[in-house]
Amino acid sequence: MNEFDVLSSTCILEHTPTVLIEWLRGLPDEWLDCDEGEGTWSARTVVGHLIAGERADWMPRVHHLLRHGDAVAFEPFDRFAQFHDEPRPIALQLDEFARLRSASLADLEALDLGVEDLKRRGRHPEFGVVTLGQHLATWVAHDLSHIAQIARVMARRCDTAVGPWRAYLPIIREWKR
Question: Rounded to 5 degrees, what are φ and ψ at 113?
Fold first, then answer.
Protein backbone atom coordinates (compact mmCIF):
# COMPACT_ATOMS: atom_id res chain seq x y z
CA MET A 1 0.00 0.00 0.00
CA ASN A 2 1.83 3.08 -1.21
CA GLU A 3 -0.81 5.66 -0.44
CA PHE A 4 -2.91 5.21 2.67
CA ASP A 5 -6.61 4.99 1.82
CA VAL A 6 -8.86 5.44 4.83
CA LEU A 7 -11.85 3.77 3.18
CA SER A 8 -10.05 0.64 2.06
CA SER A 9 -8.13 0.34 5.31
CA THR A 10 -10.96 0.77 7.78
CA CYS A 11 -12.26 -2.62 6.63
CA ILE A 12 -9.29 -4.16 8.46
CA LEU A 13 -10.18 -2.20 11.58
CA GLU A 14 -13.83 -3.27 11.24
CA HIS A 15 -12.92 -6.96 10.96
CA THR A 16 -10.43 -7.18 13.83
CA PRO A 17 -13.07 -7.62 16.57
CA THR A 18 -14.87 -10.32 14.55
CA VAL A 19 -11.61 -12.17 13.88
CA LEU A 20 -10.74 -12.16 17.57
CA ILE A 21 -14.26 -13.05 18.73
CA GLU A 22 -14.47 -16.03 16.37
CA TRP A 23 -10.96 -17.15 17.22
CA LEU A 24 -10.73 -16.64 20.97
CA ARG A 25 -14.23 -16.82 22.46
CA GLY A 26 -14.70 -20.09 24.27
CA LEU A 27 -11.06 -21.17 24.24
CA PRO A 28 -9.71 -22.68 27.45
CA ASP A 29 -7.58 -20.45 29.67
CA GLU A 30 -4.43 -22.44 28.86
CA TRP A 31 -4.69 -21.13 25.28
CA LEU A 32 -5.72 -17.60 26.23
CA ASP A 33 -3.03 -17.18 28.87
CA CYS A 34 -0.03 -18.88 27.24
CA ASP A 35 2.82 -16.51 26.52
CA GLU A 36 6.50 -16.58 25.58
CA GLY A 37 7.85 -16.17 29.09
CA GLU A 38 8.13 -13.47 31.71
CA GLY A 39 7.28 -10.01 30.45
CA THR A 40 5.57 -11.27 27.27
CA TRP A 41 1.95 -11.08 26.23
CA SER A 42 -0.79 -13.67 25.96
CA ALA A 43 -3.91 -13.49 23.77
CA ARG A 44 -5.85 -12.14 26.77
CA THR A 45 -3.19 -9.49 27.38
CA VAL A 46 -3.27 -8.42 23.73
CA VAL A 47 -7.06 -7.98 23.83
CA GLY A 48 -6.64 -5.86 26.98
CA HIS A 49 -4.07 -3.75 25.13
CA LEU A 50 -6.42 -3.29 22.17
CA ILE A 51 -9.13 -2.09 24.57
CA ALA A 52 -6.73 0.42 26.11
CA GLY A 53 -5.86 1.66 22.63
CA GLU A 54 -9.50 2.26 21.79
CA ARG A 55 -9.97 4.24 24.98
CA ALA A 56 -6.82 6.34 25.02
CA ASP A 57 -4.91 6.17 21.74
CA TRP A 58 -6.42 5.98 18.27
CA MET A 59 -9.42 8.29 18.12
CA PRO A 60 -8.40 10.47 21.08
CA ARG A 61 -5.18 11.23 19.20
CA VAL A 62 -7.07 11.87 15.95
CA HIS A 63 -9.16 14.49 17.74
CA HIS A 64 -6.10 15.92 19.49
CA LEU A 65 -4.27 16.27 16.17
CA LEU A 66 -7.26 17.92 14.48
CA ARG A 67 -7.64 20.33 17.41
CA HIS A 68 -3.99 21.20 18.15
CA GLY A 69 -1.98 20.25 15.07
CA ASP A 70 1.69 19.83 15.95
CA ALA A 71 1.65 22.64 18.53
CA VAL A 72 0.77 20.30 21.44
CA ALA A 73 2.13 16.76 21.73
CA PHE A 74 -0.21 13.82 22.22
CA GLU A 75 -0.61 12.55 25.75
CA PRO A 76 1.76 9.59 26.23
CA PHE A 77 -0.04 6.26 25.80
CA ASP A 78 0.56 3.60 28.43
CA ARG A 79 1.28 0.58 26.21
CA PHE A 80 1.20 -1.61 29.32
CA ALA A 81 -2.10 -0.38 30.83
CA GLN A 82 -3.61 -3.86 30.45
CA PHE A 83 -1.29 -5.14 33.17
CA HIS A 84 -2.83 -2.74 35.72
CA ASP A 85 -6.26 -4.40 35.53
CA GLU A 86 -7.41 -7.69 36.97
CA PRO A 87 -7.78 -10.40 34.31
CA ARG A 88 -11.36 -10.67 33.08
CA PRO A 89 -13.22 -13.37 31.17
CA ILE A 90 -12.27 -13.20 27.51
CA ALA A 91 -15.93 -12.94 26.44
CA LEU A 92 -16.29 -9.68 28.39
CA GLN A 93 -13.07 -8.32 26.95
CA LEU A 94 -14.02 -9.23 23.39
CA ASP A 95 -17.47 -7.68 23.74
CA GLU A 96 -15.98 -4.49 25.16
CA PHE A 97 -13.38 -4.31 22.40
CA ALA A 98 -16.05 -4.80 19.71
CA ARG A 99 -18.23 -2.08 21.24
CA LEU A 100 -15.36 0.38 21.59
CA ARG A 101 -14.04 -0.32 18.09
CA SER A 102 -17.50 0.18 16.58
CA ALA A 103 -17.78 3.55 18.33
CA SER A 104 -14.28 4.52 17.18
CA LEU A 105 -15.07 3.72 13.56
CA ALA A 106 -18.38 5.59 13.69
CA ASP A 107 -16.48 8.57 15.10
CA LEU A 108 -13.84 8.30 12.35
CA GLU A 109 -16.49 8.07 9.63
CA ALA A 110 -18.32 11.12 11.02
CA LEU A 111 -15.15 13.18 10.59
CA ASP A 112 -15.47 12.66 6.81
CA LEU A 113 -11.72 12.99 6.33
CA GLY A 114 -10.31 13.79 2.93
CA VAL A 115 -6.90 13.28 1.35
CA GLU A 116 -5.74 16.72 2.51
CA ASP A 117 -6.72 15.90 6.11
CA LEU A 118 -4.35 12.93 6.07
CA LYS A 119 -1.45 15.37 5.59
CA ARG A 120 -2.33 17.28 8.76
CA ARG A 121 0.44 17.21 11.29
CA GLY A 122 0.46 16.31 14.96
CA ARG A 123 3.19 15.79 17.50
CA HIS A 124 3.97 12.40 19.01
CA PRO A 125 5.72 12.62 22.41
CA GLU A 126 8.48 10.24 21.26
CA PHE A 127 8.63 10.52 17.45
CA GLY A 128 7.99 14.23 17.01
CA VAL A 129 5.98 15.42 14.00
CA VAL A 130 3.68 12.80 12.48
CA THR A 131 0.77 13.03 10.05
CA LEU A 132 -2.81 11.96 10.51
CA GLY A 133 -2.33 9.51 7.64
CA GLN A 134 0.64 7.92 9.41
CA HIS A 135 -1.37 7.63 12.62
CA LEU A 136 -4.28 5.93 10.85
CA ALA A 137 -1.98 3.60 8.88
CA THR A 138 -0.30 2.66 12.16
CA TRP A 139 -3.70 1.76 13.63
CA VAL A 140 -4.22 -0.77 10.82
CA ALA A 141 -0.68 -2.19 11.05
CA HIS A 142 -1.03 -2.33 14.86
CA ASP A 143 -4.12 -4.54 14.59
CA LEU A 144 -2.43 -6.87 12.13
CA SER A 145 0.72 -7.02 14.24
CA HIS A 146 -1.21 -8.11 17.31
CA ILE A 147 -3.21 -10.71 15.37
CA ALA A 148 0.11 -12.16 14.20
CA GLN A 149 1.44 -11.98 17.76
CA ILE A 150 -1.49 -14.01 19.09
CA ALA A 151 -0.97 -16.64 16.38
CA ARG A 152 2.75 -16.85 17.14
CA VAL A 153 2.29 -17.18 20.90
CA MET A 154 -0.39 -19.83 20.55
CA ALA A 155 1.59 -21.80 17.95
CA ARG A 156 4.64 -21.84 20.19
CA ARG A 157 2.58 -23.62 22.81
CA CYS A 158 2.94 -26.60 20.46
CA ASP A 159 6.73 -26.18 20.23
CA THR A 160 7.90 -29.62 21.34
CA ALA A 161 4.65 -31.46 20.62
CA VAL A 162 5.02 -31.11 16.84
CA GLY A 163 8.18 -33.19 16.81
CA PRO A 164 10.04 -33.24 13.48
CA TRP A 165 7.34 -31.13 11.75
CA ARG A 166 8.95 -28.18 13.55
CA ALA A 167 11.23 -27.97 10.50
CA TYR A 168 8.22 -26.94 8.39
CA LEU A 169 6.73 -24.48 10.87
CA PRO A 170 8.60 -21.16 10.80
CA ILE A 171 6.18 -19.68 13.34
CA ILE A 172 7.70 -22.14 15.84
CA ARG A 173 11.12 -22.81 14.32
CA GLU A 174 12.22 -19.17 14.31
CA TRP A 175 11.36 -18.70 17.95
CA LYS A 176 14.34 -17.98 20.17
CA ARG A 177 13.84 -20.06 23.32
Answer: -70, 145
State the pLDDT confidence band at 35, using cuts at 50, 70 and 90. very high
Answer yes or no: are the C-beta atoms of 33 and 44 closer than 8 Å: yes
Cβ–Cβ under 8 Å, residues 30 and 43 = no
d(CA 177, CA 54) in angstroms, rounded, equals: 32
Q: What is the DSSP letter of 177?
A: -
Domain 6-173 annotated CATH 1.20.120.450: yes
Q: Say whether 1 sits in a helix, a strand or coil.
A: coil
The rounded distance, in Å, linking the Cα atoms of 36 and 101 is 27
Neighbour-count burial for 133-162, b at 16+ CB within 10 Å, e otherwise = bbbbbbbbebbeebbebbeebbbbeeeeee
What are the two backbone dihedrals, phi and then psi, of residue 123, each rounded to the nearest 5 degrees?
A: -130, 120
Least confident of 100-104, 114-118, 127-131: 114-118
